[in-house]
Structure formats: structure tokens, C-alpha cells
Amino acid sequence: LHDRDGKIWMDGQLVDWRDAKIHVLTHTLHYGCGAFEGVRAYDTVNGTAIFRLQEHTQRLFNSAKILRMKIPFTQEQVNDAQREVVKANNLKSAYIRPLIWIGSEKLGVSPKGNQVHLMVAAWSWGAYLGEEGMKRGIRVKTSSYTRHHVNITMTQAKTVSNYTNSILANMEATDEGYDEALLLDASGFVSEGAGENLFVIKNGVVYTPDLSAGALNGITRNTIFSICQDLGLKLVEKRITRDEVYICDEAFFTGTAAEVTPIRELDRVEIGSGSRGPITEQIQTAFFDIVNGRNPKYASWLTAV
Ligand code: PMP
Q1: What is known about what this protein does (predicted)?
Q2: Which residues make Cβ contacts (< 8 Å) with residue 156, sequence separation at least 6?
Q3: Which residues constitute the domain of residue 46?
Q4: What pTM does this model have?
């Protein structure tokens, strides 16, 4: 990913892709205190637009606040940086990655006195869990790793260090031939995927774990809430057990990267008919209509680049 043409926005300037470098004594590289976002721009019917840009930027600032980091730019500037980077790389659609980190002035656990930096990169990224998975559903394994407890590394911040746990869970699941991991919280209730929120459907009602299970407050998750309302589907946030997932009718993951990915199997137990369920397909279609600019009701969620 690093050896290519293009531009990356770094601390207020567009720099050549290959020159977007940091020092090995960067504080965040040693202690993991940093935060990022994952945002997508779509090639909509009205041209390239970023989906829910303000919400993603707000979450980045929330993550920074939780981590006691002060971003040396305004939200407006961070929004502009994301649009600029998509434009500068001539991308029609893109995955956008803003990241904040602590500089290399000094080491030691306390980051005080170090500068906070921000970069934004963008590149093409297709279906995160595969095109095939979008149609047929993916195979998921309950992880032997527990999702962070809400009072450990802070689950509402999209922190760099939270992802060690996601990496372990994802590697374990994929090493065993599954597509993705499902993590339970410290009490054994369903939390989320390694990089996705979970939804299950039973008797026409849509359920998702409430945030006390430590899942990230996903922006796609929130989009699904609106879609359910539009489709007349009841949506309930509650504690969910893994066996409730085994016996549900349909299940799917959501995320900026994963979009709406159906789940056909958990721990070799077939979910529903073992393929993408009909309500999941309806929700997925509504989602892609919104992000691609085909639903005027949500035009304000799309920011032209
Ligand atoms: N949970 C985790 C751990 C994630 O990494 C992501 C992706 N950002 C999500 C949930 C989904 O969040 P969003 O819909 O905002 O991308």
C-alpha cells in the first residue's frame, strides 16, 4: 500500500504518497494511543460523495476527547481534508482513512508535551468481506477472545490499540477457515464482529446488541436504524446471547468497510436457510440505494467532494 503514486494529507498539506512517513520513535507506535476513522466515498448518481462525513469526523473528535488528545484542526478542516484527498487521488469511490497519533518528541507512557498529528489517506477498496459474501452470506466463528470491557480501553473510541483484539479474533477465525469473528463481551453476551456491528432477525423483528456490550457505536448501525423505520421493521437494542444467534432467522454484519454483509453460519450452525435472508436483502438494497444517492430522503448524508 505504501509504494504507489498519489497524495496523502498530512498535518495540513498534501504530500506525495511515498513521502508520507513518521519517525520510529513515534509515541503511538510504542504505546498505542491513537484513533482513526473508516469512511467511504461512493460514486453516486450525483457524482462522488462521502457518506455521513460529519458523523465520522464527529466520532474522530469524540475518540480524541476520550483519549485526552487535542486535534490541532477544526472539524471543518478535517472534513475538507477528506474531500481534498479523494479529489487529489482522482478517486470516483474510495475508502478514506483519517488517523490521529502522538508524535516523537519524547517517549515514556505520559504523552504530555508531544504533538498530536493527523493524516488522511484514501484508496479504492471493494467489498471488505468479498463480493461472494455480500450475496451468499459469510461464515462466522465465535471468538475465544473477549471484546474489551467497557472500562478498559474505552469501547466508544475507535482507538488504534482496540484493534489488537480485533486482529487476534480475526486471525483465529480466518486460520480456522471462517470469514470473520464474532466477539462476546466479558459477561458472555454478544458484542460485535472484529470490525463490524451485528444484527439478527427473528420473527420479523430486528435486534442488535445494546452498547453496554462494548460494541462500537457504528455509523452504519445507526443507518440501519433509519432503514428499519422506513421499512416498518421493529428494531430492538438488547442483550443477545450466542444461542439466540444460532436460532435466529437471519443475521448480518454492518460497517463502513463491510457495508451490509449477510451471515449464513455461526460456529458451523446454519442460520435460517443458510444463505442471505429476505429481510437482510431488503435492508441491503435500501442501504445501497442510500449510499449511492438513489434515495432523496437521505441526500444530506452525502457530501460532494
Ligand atoms: N465495530 C468495530 C470494531 C469496527 O471496527 C467498526 C468499523 N468502524 C464497526 C463496528 C462499524 O462501525 P461503522 O459502521 O461506523 O463503520
Answers
A1: Acts on leucine, isoleucine and valine.
A2: 62, 63, 66, 211, 216, 217
A3: 7-123
A4: 0.97
